[in-house]
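WP5 quarterly update. Target: Molybdopterin oxidoreductase family protein. Source organism: Agromyces intestinalis. Length: 705 aa.
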Amino acid sequence: MPRTAAATHCPYCALQCAMTLTPVAPVAGVASDASAAPVTVAGRDFPTNRGGLCRKGWTSAELLRSPGRLTAPLVRGDDGELHEASWDDALDLVATRLRGIRSSHGADAVGVFGGGGLTNEKAYLLGKFARLALGTSRIDYNGRYCMSSAAAAGNRAFGVDRGLPFPLEDLDDADTILLLGTNVGETMPPFIGHLAGAQAAGGLVVVDPRRTATAKLTDEGRGLHIQPVPGTDLPLLLGLIHLVIAERLIDVDYVEQRTVGFDAVRRSVAQWWPERVQSVTGVAALTLRRLARRLAAGGGTYILTGRGVEQHVDGTDTATAAINLALLLGLPGRAGSGYGTLTGQGNGQGGREHGQKCDQLPGYRKITDPAARAHVAGVWGVDPDVIPGPGVPAVELLHSLGRPDGVRALMVHGSNLVVSSPNVAAVREGLARLDLLVVCDFFLSETGALADVVLPITQWAEEEGTMTSLEGRVIRRRRALTPPDGVRDELWVLAELARRLDCTATFDTDPEQVFDELRRASEGGIADYSGIDYAMLDRGEAAYWPYPRGGSGTPRLFADRFAHDDGLARLVAVSVRGSARPRPGSGELELITGRLLEHYQSGAQTRRVPELLEARPEALATMHPATALRLGIADGALVELANRNGTVRCRARLSTDVRPDAVFLPFHYGDVQAANLLIGDAVDPISSMPEFKTGVVRVTPLDPI
Ligand code: SF4
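Structure tokens (predicted):
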């Protein structure tokens, strides 16, 4: 075990708080506790977290020797149970089955599902493995559930998708920050230090149907909380655009010189006068006017979006409307102002740049672009024709599981599909239809428990690599301790499987060598990493992409031009599609799903940390006391939430933080408490983002008062 402290970053969210892990030295004469954390965690000074960590970060070392840690491959036997097996036996079995399925049903009968928590090196090698070793186009990842709408909107407007096109510290001097659908107060608490300037100026504006921890930061004159009807973010933004145009608040020079598309946008918002917006969103016309004037008042102004406005069937258009508003105010690229979207998963940014998306090659290149294919094929040492064409996005891929002409074998890396996917009941059925399910994980997640083969892999503190934070800054993940016996790095797993599948392409297992190959593959692409290397990261250089070879990094984008060929941003007219989302009928409530401070994503990791589980042991359906009284529900009572997609059973929690017409359910739990049992198959037609954030549900007490 290394005995020196390792400067690394948190295993969880995209803020990637810096931390120092120090191995715990054994005490002479004292028997060591096998389940005790083998490292201590200390916050480390870094521009994003300034030494702070949230509760998840402080307790993250508990994961390393958790009793549920997998330390041997598991293979399902004839008795239907998972049994320990040797690595050779498990990998031989996987390779043999993959070969058989491929030869019987074609290469696209094998699918790969990646994750936004994988290091850049793993995400890159997984995309290469799918296309070269498996020859399949069927690869996508859970970032489809997270960032796809924001990414589609950013690409459409700016020609590039980098969550924050500026360092987080830039927010410190802002006078006004508009947060749309993001609860950083719970999801990434150290972030709120960057909101202090806007709070002091009375300019923190939070749009959220719930009175969240973030919304409460606006109390006592520090800003404004706007609580619209769930799912009405798009009309709200169209109304704000209407107002800034009608009241001549737009930055005319900026719009003329740096954008195209104004006339179409002006026409598209003509009908969204404030009183109409009020009738749809419930937000007072006076409040809208106040907000529009505040945003246009000058000084440092930022507009930031999160999953609350993006995880919808109109998520791309809603994010586009937020961008339109920012462009009309002249914010993107202006010093001290800007627009951004807050990436959620640990490597949600890097995870969408290196080729694990169905339509993408490394460097954020389009897989259909002949020049991109030729470049990447050159790095991989193959003919461009060998690289399959575009695959299908995550939800479509999952729909095809076990179907004729669909995916019959699935490899899952860094995802817990039966908790985090929409319509999880259908996903479970699809997984059961498969001929082969292989899951790489460090715990037996709900998805791993259904697998034919489970391969135990290293955790963050046991591996080297890089991540790309929500700022587009590439940072180093460093090894603090030796992995337990029996555990392997995913790079090694992919290389071993590629060899067994007779793939002649190179699959390095050393992260630095993989990163060097990634750099070459990304060179000249949108997300160009070619000028970044481990040595400069280890020296502490702040490396923001694009960072071309021999050049320098780009902390701030858009100062002079946008990434479209003509350098101009696109104002894109969007509209409300009437039937996009069902509205509650009599006796029904709006369902809002979301996150808790104590848990991360599907909870597969955080539900194993005793302190976090004790604090939030179960899903609670939070509703307004008046609603509960009407429905005959007491605080703590068992309730059933049901709609045409499924049923959830959990306890009720009463709070005035939720509107009387809504119920909030966190999505970190599995089985009968899985919020995504209530989420259907509808997706955004542009980004394929599922409608996660709102729905219609009927709530019934199981033990009425
Ligand atoms: Fe980790 Fe995110 Fe918490 Fe920071 S805010 S400690 S990165 S979970």
